[in-house]
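Reading is simple: each integer encodes one residue's backbone shape. The lines below illustrate:
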Amino acid sequence: MSNTQTNTSEQDEQKFKEWSQSEYVKISKFCNSKGYQIKKIDQPKCQLLAPIVAIWYVKTTEANLNLWVISGDFPTDLTDAKVANNARQSLRHFSMAWHMQAAKLEEGVASGRIELQDAETQTKFANELTHRAENLYKLYSDEGLWAASGQQA
């Protein structure tokens, strides 16, 4: 291996480390803002697809409460770990949840129930959430991406 390849590999590894640390800080703050304190990250269950998405399996300080937490280029969000057996399945859950949330926001605009600043803001957010949900589902559906991990759909 040449020095250039070694340097590039080391640089990539350093970028990944920095990215994953930054994402950890992000989910830690997010969990705290929702009233959950992280006790431990179960690394073998996590999936980090830098710099796109990180799916974290979080053990909280609350007895018997574990969470799936998503971060990266997607909205940071969390859900009870019972909804999915692995990181891949959690992506499907988040995708469906975001589709339902977007539909609820669109319904609200149509019926005059504005939950955000105004109808335009709510419509833009619903559209963005739908777009993110669709992209997340594409990641979930990509068999090649998951082949090495052995995670089933």
